[in-house]
Structure formats: C-alpha cells, structure tokens
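If you are new to this repository, start here. Below is one unmodified record pulled from the training split, so you can see the exact layout before writing a loader.
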Amino acid sequence: MKKFIFALLALVATAACTPGGESKTDSWSKSIEDNMVTVNTVTNAEYTDNATVTIEMKDITKPYVTLKIEGIKFVAMMPDVNFELTDLPFTIYASDDANDPLYGSWIINQSAVVPTVGGVAREEYTMHNFKGSISDYGYVVEFDVNFGGSIYHASFGKIEVVQTWDATFDATAIVVLNPGENSTYSEDEFKISFAQANLSKQVVDITLEGLRFVEQMPEITMQLRNVPFSYSDDGAQRQFNVAAVIPTVGGEEMAQYTISNLTGSVSKSSISLNCDITAMNARVTVSGSSKK
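And here is the target side for that same chain:
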C-alpha cells in the first residue's frame, strides 16, 4: 500500500493545467470479483452470491471513493441489483512504525450508507455499520442490512495475506468501589495484552494477567474476546466504546464480572481504559505503557 500511496501522491504532484488552461483530474479504479456472504443474524442462515465490486477514486486529490457493487442479492429470492455507494470518505492509516503492514491502508467507517440503484436512492437497502479496508493485502467491505424484516450481515472481500497485531503493556488499575465513598484499591502489578488475529477485522482479544479488583481477591487471568474498536482519524490509536462484554476466566464465562461502559484507547506505546463492573458497583481505570 505504501508504494500505491506514493504513486498516487506522485500523480497529485504532477497534475496540472493543460496548455489551454483546462484543469486536469487524475483518477484511479480497480475491480474485484469475489463472493458476497450474507448471514441472517437471527437464524444464522448463510447465503453466498458472486459479485463484482469496483472501487473508484474519481479525484485522487480528495479522500473519497465510490463503490459499485454489481449483480448482488442478499437472499435467493431477491433479484440481482447493482448498487452504487458514492463519495464514501476514508482516512489513511498512519503509523510511526514504517513496518506496520496496515500503514497506508484506506479505512472506511460509516454508521449508515444509502445506496443508489439506477441513480435513485434506495433507503430500503440502507447499509448500517459500514466498514471497509483497502490495502495491498486485500479489499474488505462489511455491513448490516434490514431486508424483509430481518437483519443480515454482509461481507465481501479478499485478503491475500492475513496480517496480525499484538501488544503487551505493564499496567496499573485503580478500582473505585461504591463511587463516592472513597473506597479505592490500586493494583500495580499486572500485564494487559491485545491480540488482533486479522487486521481486516476490527476486533481484538484483551487479556489481563495477574489482576485483582480487591486486595483479598486472588490474582486471575481474565480475557475479553472479540472486542470491537474503531481507528482514530490518524490511524495511530484503536479506540473502544463498548456497552458490555462478558469476560472469560479459564475458558469459562464469568457473567458476575460483566464489563460495561468500556471506553478508551490503545496506541503503540500506551493504553488508557475505563469500565464499570456493575455487580461490584466498581469503576475501573487502567493505564500503562508498552512492555520492554
């Protein structure tokens, strides 16, 4: 992707007026043929249909792409439809690590996108939680759509190389029990690790090793699996805003330790997280720096 980004920048630098004074606009496009997999989120019934997605950057000086999805249907009885998603804004993932494989990727993250069919907006096909990643390693798009009264999760893409990310931090936790009553416990010696199994999927597993919420509690290793996140505008941080997640201890779900209102971020060098443990009436603040 770095080579691709640099090539686009070179095109921008050389874009100029023609001798007649007319402006010149450079563009870029790529077509991918692959399967669109649609899953009914209630019944888990899966439908697969072949489709072609064309990615267009109409003006390489502006951070917008247009996606054309040709010959797609979400269920077998639906007719083939050609969707166009016009001028989707994207950010370019930046990192202070030049070897980061995600460096230079185009990240699309929209709460809702209304596609057009034949130039007409079709709100009945509104795509919710629309996410996309465009890089040298592949092209991935996923979204939710309400069709026939059911919610379907659709995904399209091809990842040629699966890249992962992980980081471990020395952490400190401040646990406030019964907020307002000045009952505070500080846990200074535990590790927190993040593991992203596939850079095309914006979920991580978080492992807290040697953690206690109160002094008399034995140390435990707690894992939060498949925690969703979004990238900051500059791509340097993974940001969390999760209503609730049930942790596991020793492979068993521990509903009594349900984590709620999980917010914060993790970068290459530091973490800052906040959450509530409702059953304990506790507010937890975690901070830390990268493990050396």
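Two things worth knowing about this chain: The longest strand covers residues 183-196. The first helix runs from residue 2 to 14.
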